[in-house]
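Aggregate trends can hide what the representation actually does to any particular protein. In the encoding step, the backbone of a single protein was reduced to a row of integers, each denoting a local shape. The record that follows shows the chain in one-letter code together with its fold in token form.

***
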Amino acid sequence: MVGIAGPPGAGKSTLADTLCARLNRDIAGEPALVVPMDGYHVDNEILAARGLLPRKGAPQTFDVAGFHHLLTRLRDNEADVAIPVFDRDRDLARAGARLVTAANRILLIEGNYLLLKTEPWAQLKSLFDLTVFLPVPMSVLEARLIQRWLDHGLGQAGAETRARSNDIPNAALVLAESQPADVNLRY
């Protein structure tokens, strides 16, 4: 189990997907699978009721206990574990959207807060065999995060507001408050 952590916009999903494809190309039986933390976003209706919808993506907007339970099940090699996957276009998690099977011997778990020092997030690190962190400079993250929202149809002002009001503070938190990783992949 490889934990790939870093701030939003750092390239965690791209790295995990690329590494997964490479491993599955080079090793017989397609042993690698990506397990995204984003499947544990709390639903928008619950976030709205709690006044947290504008902060969606912040640590308090995830079901970290559920994610920890999933990682424990995966660590225990349970067979055929259904996992949720976040659908960015629909802005919701799809339950049971991917299946981890006994053939998946290499799990690439990616998410912003996998190495966060604060509880309950701090408990996750011990579940990984290897941890990787992507410490991307804030100026690069800001440009990527604004572009992400532009790509989702927001205008320039809306994209900048969305990135700076939520994504950038989340990125700063991850950069400042993450535990050391086994490997840092510099930008």
Remarks:
- The longest strand covers residues 92-100.
